[in-house]
Amino acid sequence: MIQKAKPFIKWVGGKTQLIETIEKLLPEDFRNQNNITYIEPFVGGGAVLFWILQKYPNIKKAVINDINPDLTTAYKTIKTNPKGLIRALRSIQNEYLPLTESDRKAYYLSKREKFNTKSLEPVENTALFIFLNRTCFNGLYRVNSKGLFNVPFGKYANPTICDEQTILADSELLQKVEILTGDFEATLKHAGENSFFYFDPPYKPLSETSSFNSYSKEDFNDNEQIRLGKFCQRIDLLGHRFILSNSDVKGKNPHDNFFDDLYNEFEINRVYATRMVNAKADKRGKLTELLITNGSYEKTVKIA
What we know:
Layout: H1 19-25, E1 36-40, H2 47-55, E2 59-66, H3 69-80, H4 82-96, H5 101-115, H6 122-135, H7 164-173, E3 177-181, E4 195-199, H8 222-237, E5 241-247, H9 249-252, H10 258-262, E6 267-275, E7 285-293
Parallel strand pairs: 1-2, 1-4, 2-3, 4-5
Antiparallel strand pairs: 5-7, 6-7
């Protein structure tokens, strides 16, 4: 069996469960178009990226971006030096797994401290990034105001730290992907004549307790959401297609029209998704999320 490319890290808000619905929202002629440039300005764990590049070989080029330099360094390392990364991860795995729980915690904290020095070369930085992701609490990525990773130790019995086959499969797929680090608007200059954007920005919090995972030291607040909305209007005027996902604040408060007003000229679809990360257990479970598009879509997709 040939290993399929898939996310190499756990990522809060990953889109694996929404892929079937996202596919229904793609432009009707997507599969028949030639030389598509796929652009993902908030790549995160890359679930949609890895799926769409394998599903649609007519995508000849992809551009991904993120404001998180540790994440984009990881993508670049997997693309250019997968074997070096595998050696580093295998070494960490061999050191970590035989330890007792208390020794594992001490090992984790020492690696977290080293990671936060921000002075490592790309392979070691990525190896520690993946190790911390696989062994921290809930697989979160959270930083403090200084940009330092501060997620506590997670008690996993047998975490997979070195997923060699996934790294190799991802590396092969990433060969046609350009990897950027910066603001989402900078991706526009990479758009070609036939470009498709998928936006998965940090979600607008539904409550104070759901806003605990600071993804970067720069907050993606309401002003940033509005700037993104205006950017979507711009790319629509330029003739590019897009799909955007976000939280459904109206599902929490029927009078909250923030996204309905911001994207009122586009098609707003409400779909169900399960979210397992919340500080309060009774707030987890099935919620509606938004999938917003300016392209052709199947009317039947609106299920919520």
